[in-house]
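FORM 7B: Structural annotation worksheet

SECTION A. Query
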Amino acid sequence: MIRHVLICCRGEIALRFIRTCRLMDISTTVIYSADDDNAEFVHAADQAVRVDAWIPETLITTVINVALSSKVDAVAPGYGPLAENADFADACAKANLIFIGPNSAAIRQTGDKIAARLAAEQAQIPIIPGMQIDTDANAAMILTNRLGYPLLIKAAHGGGGRGIRVVDQPEDFITSYEEVRQESLRAFGNNQVYLEKFLGEDIRHIEVQILADRYGKILHLGTRECSVQRRRQKIVEEAPAPGLTEIQYEELHNAALAVAHQVGYDSAGTVEFLLDKEGHFYFIEMNARIQVEHPVTESITGIDIVEQMIYSASNQPLTLTQQDIHFSGHSIEFRICAEDAHGDFLPNGGEVLDYRIPEGPGIRVDSGIHLGAKMSPLFDSLCLKLIVSGANREQTLKRSQLALDELVIAGFSTNLAVHRWLIGNQSFNQGNYDLSIGKTIENTHSLPQRKALAIHAITALALHLNLIPGVQTNSDTHRPISPWIQRNSR
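SECTION B. Predicted structure
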């Protein structure tokens, strides 16, 4: 059994792992950069190792060396930059360290969206019509005639809403194609792309939580609705997905299990689908890590997903059976982010000057901040997750409204206004919404494009000149940028 874990992620997910490790009598060490000197997770761990010389190209070697010198026996990547990294999983195995996550072969297959689509096809699960394309833009454009417009250009190794473009007409294809390839190379180190038919925005994004061990047992923990998104970034999730028939639930559960079996999965993971108006579902991807939104599933099942991941990584068989898993009530998660909901959702930061979290039945807060903490706009903008549960969706919505009204974060702008607006939205209240609700959010809260561009320019200049109070930027050219500076949400 694992006795000591190096947690190589930050913020609320690092704290999430620390709490479960405490319950399991497992010691914790965290690794962090200078920007997180005063972060909650650094103080909560049994040990903390600060690394100042962050170089992305040698990140894996750095973390392995810290793990060995700290005498840990396992490493937990959470959903930071080392999650879904097959090379890191292999490096851990080579160093005789346990990787708390799936095997590297499963990570590679699911991380390559083209290979993942093939796995779903082999499992006889519907996929969105699409094709792999040539690296030559003009040759690729000829192939688009088979698929038709509108279509999606997607990065084969993309995620988190990046590396994807909707193309409405042939004239826009080549420009969009080159943009996606360049963005993909910068963000993911690979410029391979593929095409998918664009099904529109009046569809739903639904995922299924999977739990597996090293002995071939794979269970599902039900569905989650993830259709409230802004620019393809999830901001609200709920479990179970509302309004499905029992047959639809069963079909989605079985499809997720089939994909997980096909790739030889052996940890916690998520299989994601799109559901159209006619009730047809299509596989889109599998995430080989714990998800930001896992708490809503924990709330309706009573299962600690992190605990089960640790048991699986320890080579222990799941003691649960599918018959042991029961769904009770409803749960909604609101991602509270440091961004200006009325300023084109620009990330921002500063010192937390006032901080009050809601209390009461069914309220859970997974937070990475505290009073006096510094929130940097250079990191992922997620401050905390407000998870609200109730006996049914109606009660959960009422509790959510009260909790959102009670929540206070002062010192910088957040997207709380969006969540408070959403609670009053008729479609959301009725559970009758789809991805098009994201456009409503944009139209309701975003600035006109010219004003948004002006704010972008002013903010960039202010950051460059260190004019924003309470924010420390990486202006020192001799100090490598931390690899934690990225968006984790997906």
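SECTION C. Observations
Confidence is low (pLDDT under 50) at residues 470-490. The chain has three domains: 4-100, 129-197, 204-443.

SECTION D. Sign-off
Analyst initials: ____
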